[in-house]
Write the structure tokens for this entry.
Amino acid sequence: MKHLSDQERMRAEELLELRATIGLEPDEERELVALGVADDVSFDLAAASISIATLDVVDEMPAALSAKILLELPGASDTTVMPAMRMSGLVQDSTAERTRLGVGAYAPPVASAPASSPVQPTKTPDVIPIDVARFKRRAAIASTVAALGLAAAAAAVIYVQTRAPIVKTIAENPKQVQSPSEQRAALLANAKDVTTIAWTATKDANAVGATGDVVWSASAQQGFMRFKGLAANDAKQIQYQLWIFDADRPEATPVDGGVFDVASTGEVVVPISAKLAVGKPTLFAVTVERPGGVVVSKRERIVVTAALPS
Amino acid sequence: MVPSARDMDPAANRPPVTLPPLMGRVAAGDSVAMRECLQRYGNLIYSIARRFDPGDAEDAVQEIFLDLWKSAVRFDENVASETAFVAMIARRRLIDRRRASRRRPTTEQMPDRPTMVDPGAMPDACVEAQQATRALEQLRPEQRQVIVLSAVQGMSHGEIAAQTGMPLGTVKAHARRGLLSIRAALTGVDQGES
């Protein structure tokens, strides 16, 4: 690998960090290649690990979406063998038939080479190349450092051993499927510091007759909004967004509590998705925003508020 | 060092369950493996997509699986666990989509959509997530805030500054140092060694 000066190394790290989080402009991509570190996926791996580590609630993929993906599997449109039916479980796959068709029958274009052939990855922008040598080098460095002490050496062995492919399926975990209403009830039953505050509707047209409340537990950093009578929104036109004012933060920058839709004027329970920790909430406010929400609200349309007693 | 609550929780420290990797079979075009892959990683990918691109999560997930079929051949178990590899592929597509659409990051909570509630389950899903969890716990709170907003929701430095009220330079520094810390925890290489 090309030797980098301190300045180049810092720039490389900056670009790798950006690529792993928000992506790069084409000229930045070229710069990364010129620096010789485009194959370094360690930052991407770190960001991916954070994504997994911070998932405390796992969303169940809709069955219809699974079905769509099954139908789009490579070869699914092959009218001769109708693999889509097989893949969707309508027809059981048979080993004999697979042997007759050959394993390449459903292979995507880049994977069509025999398994024993050395496959040369084609570099494309949407593929993450893997620098094996770099990681092996890192493992070697870790082992050398660890040899300085028994405890550290043991840690290194554990580290190397745990590099093996490890997968735990979501299906393996015992799951408790709960609706937002059930989650809200559980929070009310289990958290000792839950605060419940009734919404106050404003004069906004969408808020006429709206009632409900917001519950929040500071210890759990979890909460739910309940609405009845809040106007249903067309998500292509507008969306609702919650803001949580915190005594520990400037009034100008309330915490984004999440964007949500209301499908009917019946009772709706919406989980709060606070982007930052909320220390001492003072006011919950729901605004009407453009689809996707905003980072900073102009507070032009406030539909409901719930203030905590001071 | 003071042990964290996670250090004292035996369940949190148990080794992840190992299942045979699927990528090799997927790369070879094994349709059964692709189905297993969808079953094994569908919820994970969907969950990551919902946090990163709530408005178009379903379209994003379809594209991610197409990428996964193409990229499976590049999986190397010496580099990353299969779960982490899948998450990397997913994130790369989500970032590309974000850049293409220029939509701001946010989350959307659909009121009547059931979710699978399993607090603490996902950090055990792969060794990298366990290591990342520990490393995140070692970060200063404001550093952790920035790195989570950046890595999980794909917020730009400017957006994080607007959301948190932190100066832009501080956000940039936290983002870089935070990710370097997580990377160091995963690779065993100190921040100054690379």
